[in-house]
Amino acid sequence: MTADTPQVLIDGLQYCNWSRAIFEQMRQGGLAAVHATVGYHEGFRETVRHLVDWRTRFRDNEDLILLGRDGADIERARVTNRTAIFLGLQNPMPIEDDLGLVEMLFDLGIRFMQLTYNNQSLLGCGWMEKEDSGVTRMGREAIAEMNRLGMIIDLSHAGERTALEAIALSQKPVVISHANPRWLCGSNRNVSRTVMQALREKQGLLGLSLYPLHLANGSQTTLRQFGEMASAAAEIMGAEHLGVGSDLCQDQPDSVVRWMREGRWTRQANGAASFPPQPSWFVSNLDFPGLSEGLFSVGFSKAETSLVLGGAWHRFLVDSLPSA
Prior knowledge:
The protein is α/β, with parallel strands linked by helices and 324 residues long. The chain has helices at residues 20-28, 44-60, 72-79, 100-107, 137-149, 160-169, 193-201, 223-237, 255-262, 291-297, 302-320, and strands at 9-14, 31-39, 65-67, 83-89, 110-114, 152-154, 175-176, 205-208, 242-244. The strands form 2 sheets. Strands 1, 2, 3, 4, 5 and 6 form a 6-stranded parallel sheet that branches. A 3-stranded parallel sheet has the order 7-8-9.
């Protein structure tokens, strides 16, 4: 790493086809921590099966990764030349209709949970529904329980009303781990100025996504354009509340796309059935330090770049997660 490379690099969201090669790239890229998606539409039992698989990965790759439970684990990973993996859910399906399962999953290592994916859930409304009914009665209970435990609320796929209500209801800061300013890319999957302003006012954090469908020019987006997008987001969030949640899906087979979108709730295929090519400047964790070039190119200072590429996430995780 160069003298201009931030010392704490953190990616706020990945869903890769996990392998030792990917964990080695995390180390070569200098990642101190990564928030890794455990599941989408799985119920509780299936999710526990995924967590068993993760325990096997931690055991088999203990020289490269460790399970992140609190902010102190980031420093523990750094001093032992490893990457802390914080586990999260992109859908509340694993808690089924049982509020008590939130604590069970927290005890098993889950540290993030989205209130919705693309659809209406028992907790709130996803961005793809025609009408956004906001946070549900169970959603209010889940928010309070997540606050009590220290599980981080993620609103990345929430509808506008649901996101604003959840931000207001939560007694602790929340995150949108992987999304971009909507006015720079027309997809409603991205977030509005109104949501970003509410997030900032409650000391939350926005992770910028590098998934092509969230970028203005898709796979052809340049590194400088990434920097310009970050600059626009920083005008609202400030660098101290801005990070990266790349949404990297490295080595995932195209068959996974349909599971992510459709799960088991429909028999209809919706949209393209393959992953779009990543921008050439971000195809693996090896490329993470190079994001600094895009930020420097549009005038971010070294201190601001350090915040966006990990410092803001580091502070948020230390402040949000209870000590083990």
